[in-house]
Every structure is written in structure tokens, then in C-alpha cells.
Design a protein that fits this description.
By secondary structure, the protein is of the alpha/beta class. The chain folds into two domains: 194 residues, Response regulator (Rossmann fold, 3-Layer(aba) Sandwich), CATH 3.40.50; 142 residues, Rossmann fold (3-Layer(aba) Sandwich). 42% of the residues lie in helices and 21% in strands. It is built from twelve helices and 15 strands. The chain has a seven-stranded mixed beta sheet, with helices on both faces. Helix 8 links the parallel strand 8 and strand 9.
């Protein structure tokens, strides 16, 4: 018998399985983040969380659709957005995981030609994107609430004088956190605010000397782990004795690595960390460490959750449009993350718990939960 006829009959009999005779549907997913440049530490965690989520999904659903990942590097620069969006459109990618910083997200969403692309970001949290029915889903909670939580810690620690240092390169995020601090830090004194985005290497030490003369009880650093580490190193050089506070963005292993012993005692408001971790999370953490040689920072965890949210939505429909997928995601409301259940409202904004951490002996140690 002709081999083609034989194979056709086998397929009809279903002896090769439901998906064996037909090619799998291919779904293109873009990873949009800063994989090089100023915020490359974020891109690294993002990619690692995504990689592990994809590996787990393929093991669990081997006969599901084929996934094609396209990577787009913003380098943390606004100038990259226009050419990258043109490339994304040429590639026919309609589903994007990312971007990672709020300033890049603002630049993207200000452009009308992306209205048919669905974005799910694990880290963007500027208040600008909140309460809007658009094509952008935030898996991180709005930034101003981090500021309110920092102000609460300042109040609890009886801090009466403060200096705020922020990175204006990502002002959409850092200024949202700042606004939360300022509004909630009532009756206290903010001595001065610094935008470090224009600082040279020499400026870090000179600004530290100036801050030392002002002698605030505390400093809040609204910056990435690498940048924040450089700030506390120079504060250490002038023997600053006050307290340091920061938001989620600061909570990375790079902060401790670059800040060294001067990062000790820093308090940060970040992702929820339950006192009793689930078996599922422990397996995730161990696999992450085995694959990448480090334990996951908050962004690795959120990237894992974000990837799973999109993949679960894709399983739930034959329609792969961004509009349809957003409906599925927001209608589910309660999301089972790897560490916690959290909410996504009808506008695509997440409501998550937080924990307060302190750096002790070179590690972030949880001290309270929201």
C-alpha cells in the first residue's frame, strides 16, 4: 500500500494522538525589555523568570500550541522605542511581555500604532497607567502605594527629616513613588530632593558630602539596585549614620552586591513573601537556583507570573487577539501567582500584598507583611 495512504489512515484512526497529524498552531510572543544598558539587571531577571515559566508550561501541556519567542532590547533608552515598534509590527507580533520600566511604557502607549498589541508588564507600576481601559496590563501594583508604605515605615521609625534621591530616567515610576511618600509623610520635613539621572561618577561622592552636611535622619533611594548600590557606597565613604529606605525597584541582589556592607540595614517595600512558603514555590525557587545560579529577585517571580497569566489565557480561547485575551485575563479577577493569589481588575491593574524587608548579613530578610 502507498505510504501516504497508510499514514492518512493512521491519522484517521487517531493512533498518533489528537495533535499528531496536524501542525501545531504557532503563537508569537515578544519579550520587550532592557537586556543591555543601564537596566540590564532587570532584563536578566525578566528573561530568567520567563524561561522557567515556558519550560514548565511545555512540560505540562506538550500538545498545546507552539510558542515562538522574539526578543526586543530597549537598552533602557527612549530612542529605541520607535525602531523596535516598527520591527515588532513587521514581525507580526501582537502579544508582548514587557516593557520593564514605566518611562518606556509611556513612550510606547503614547503611540497610536500599538493599539492592536496587548502588553503585559511584570514591573511597570506608574500611576499614569492605572484605572485606564487600554491594551496594557500591569502585574505590579501602582507605584504610589509603595510610596505610602514607605511613609508608613518612616512614621513607625519616627523619622522627622528626610532626603529623597530618585532616578529621573524612569521618572514615570520614581515620581509616582515620590508622590505617595510626600502625600503620606505629613507634618515631617523633606530637606531636599535629588535627581541622580544626570550625575557623573564624581557627582555621587560630591552629593554624598552635601547630604552629609544636611544630616537627615533618613534617605529614600528611588532607583535600581545597581544605581542605589553606588549611592550607599558613597554615603558609606562619608560615614553617613542615618537610615536608608527604598521601593521594590531597589530590592535586587545587585543592590547588596554594589552597596556592600553599606547596604546593611536598608528597608525596602517589595513583593509579598509569605511566612510559610508553599511546596510549589519551594520547587520553583530551587529550580530557578539550579538553572541560573541565584535565587529569584522580585522581578524573576513577577516575570514567571506574567508569562503564566498570558499562557493560561491562550489555552482558554481559540481567538488569539489581544482584545479577547485581555477579557479572559481581567474576567478571571483572582490570579494564582507562584507566591500569592492577587487581583487584576477590569482595567488590567493588579492589587497585590507587600512585605517589608531589611538587609541583614547580605540578604533581604522579611520583617513584616501588609
Amino acid at each position: 500500500m502507498d505510504m501516504k495512504i497508510t499514514w492518512f489512515l493512521i491519522c484517521l484512526l487517531g493512533l498518533v494522538g489528537t495533535f499528531g497529524c496536524l501542525p501545531k498552531e504557532k503563537v508569537k510572543i515578544g519579550l520587550l525589555g532592557s537586556f543591555s544598558g543601564k537596566y540590564s539587571d532587570m532584563g536578566k531577571e525578566f528573561r530568567q523568570g520567563n524561561t522557567l515559566a515556558l519550560e514548565h508550561f511545555k512540560k505540562k501541556y506538550p500538545d498545546a500550541f507552539e510558542i515562538e519567542i522574539r526578543t526586543y532590547d530597549t537598552k533602557g533608552e527612549l530612542a529605541s522605542v520607535k525602531p523596535l515598534l516598527e520591527t515588532i509590527r513587521r514581525d507580526g507580533v501582537k502579544l508582548i511581555l514587557g516593557p520593564l520600566t514605566s518611562n518606556i511604557a509611556r513612550e510606547i502607549l503614547d503611540r497610536q500604532q500599538v493599539r492592536d498589541i496587548l502588553f503585559l508588564s511584570p514591573s511597570v507600576s506608574s500611576d499614569f497607567f492605572s484605572n485606564k481601559d487600554d491594551n496594557f496590563i500591569m502585574i505590579n501594583e501602582v507605584a504610589s502605594l509603595q510610596g505610602v508604605a514607605i511613609a508608613r515605615e518612616l512614621e513607625n521609625d519616627r523619622i522627622n527629616s528626610l532626603i529623597i534621591i530618585y532616578d529621573g530616567h524612569n521618572g514615570e515610576y520614581t515620581l509616582s513613588v515620590r508622590e505617595g511618600i510626600v502625600k503620606a509623610y505629613l507634618g515631617k520635613k523633606i530637606l531636599k530632593e535629588y535627581d541622580l539621572s544626570s550625575w557623573s561618577k564624581e557627582d555621587y561622592y560630591q552629593k554624598a558630602l552635601e547630604i552629609g552636611r544636611l544630616n537627615p535622619q533618613a534617605i529614600t533611594i528611588l532607583a535600581s539596585g545597581i544605581t542605589g548600590g553606588a549611592v550607599v557606597q558613597n554615603l558609606g565613604r562619608i560615614k553617613y549614620q542615618g537610615k536608608i529606605y527604598g521601593p521594590t525597584w531597589l530590592k535586587t541582589s545587585n543592590y547588596i552586591r554594589h552597596g556592600g556592607r553599606y547596604s546593611e540595614g536598608t528597608k525596602v517595600i517589595s513583593n509579598y513573601y509569605p511566612a510559610n512558603r508553599s511546596r510549589e514555590y519551594q520547587v520553583f525557587e530551587n529550580e530557578y537556583q539550579e538553572l541560573f545560579g541565584s535565587y529569584p529577585d522580585w522581578l524573576g517571580i513577577y516575570a514567571y507570573d506574567t508569562t503564566n497569566i498570558l499562557l493560561r489565557a491562550l489555552l482558554g480561547t481559540k481567538q488569539k487577539s489581544g482584545e479577547e485575551l485581555k477579557k479572559i485575563i481581567v474576567n478571571s479577577q483572582v490570579v494564582s501567582g507562584i507566591q500569592e493569589e492577587f487581583l487584576i481588575n477590569e482595567q488590567g491593574d493588579a492589587k497585590r500584598k507587600t512585605s517589608t524587608f531589611i538587609v541583614r548579613q547580605g540578604k533581604f530578610e522579611r520583617i513584616t507583611n501588609e
